[in-house]
Amino acid sequence: MLIISYFFYGCWDWRFLFLIAASSLIDFWVAKKIKASEKKNTKKAFVGISLVMNIGLLGFFKYFNFFADSLVDLFNLVGFHADYTTLHIILPVGISFYTFQTLSYTIDVYRGKIEPSNSIVQFFAYVSFFPQLVAGPIERATNLLPQFQKKRTFEYDKAADGMRQMLWGFFKKVVVADNCAVFVDQAFADPSMSSSGELFVGMIFFAFQLYGDFSGYSDIAIGSARLFGFDLKQNFAFPYFARDIAEFYRRWHMSLTNWFKDYVYFPLGGSRVGLNKKIRNVFIIYLISGFWHGANWTFIFWGFLNALYYVPLMLSKRNRRNLEIVAANSFLPSFRQGYAIFETFIVTCFIRVFFRADSIEDAFLYIKRIFSFQGNTWGNLDKISIAVIVILLVVEWINRKEQHGLAIGNRPVYVRWGSYMAVFLIILFFGKSSTSFIYFQF
After folding, report:
1. Which of 53, 239, 326, 429 could make a disulfide contact with 251, Cβ separation 3.0–4.6 Å?
2. Which residue out of 88, 253, 293, 404 is catalytically annotated?
3. What is the mean pLDDT of the chain?
4. What CA–CA distances, in Å, run from 106 to 54, 110, 212, 231?
């Protein structure tokens, strides 16, 4: 598994194999030192080495040019001419994911949640596990590493369900996301050339492009891991059926949300502190989350808007309100639930304009153009994208209590195979493969 994973990663750029190997080696050594140390200050010092190394690597490769550009802009703003030669730094694919994965390992060893690995091969395989290496889910050593330490046997039911999840992941990626991407790219390329209606649809389509792209990758990763007998954590739990922003982020990119909660939010005091610190902690989490997604002010502002959206919910103590599955005891939601789902979806769509736009100014112009109601025609809408979005929503609503949209292993054989063939034919005739995964850039 280690050889396969390193070969897989090396096919992108073999030079960065040294980077992931160095990161793995240092954290393997640090964890051993933490366990062997008797003094708490010594343990903290070794955790500090892991923090500096992991955050340092991530900061250099991902954020060096961002900070350099921002510093030059600041000097120019106050009247000092500044210039520099930008380094042509290639962002190693998956570095945001595997640095968080190794960092959580050393912290969990320090906290006593897991024993340090005695096998360097097993640990290296855990860090580089190819299904989730380049875009998550961000696995914890407490869940994944022990699975490398025990004998696994092939389980037909597990492998079959993994194949179903992979099939559904391919549908979400190459059918939903890549069809929506064509319209989205046109809308965001030059908003002045599109009507208000077209820009509104472009915003909605981007929400489904992002969801189909990233949750589709997660489904493929989790499903393929199950073929090898590994169980990865669920990363998306049908977030577009969420009834408020708190529930939305409990269901969206769950591995990242839980990582920030356990390693940043709780150490800051979480919600067990005074009101001002509660608000501070919320903004810190969302701003860091925005910055994690990319070296651009648009992502930071996107995080800021999410914090603004979340704080009123927290202040009114409604952020833990919707913990159960929507319409848990009925097939259709109530009017109140339906309206809450619609409102949450629309607000998150508007916030995501800043996630997609090239600059904050472009995002504001895009939203302003929507509300200008100028040239208010719908143009040549992509009927295929609308149709596959409807299919996506219907299938996932039916299976919203399951781990993924195509979890139909307990259905009659004609339902299972009819579904497989239908999804396969839709992929075959309407799938596109012209774009890469969005989250590869993160």
Report:
1. 239
2. 293
3. 89
4. 11, 6, 33, 21
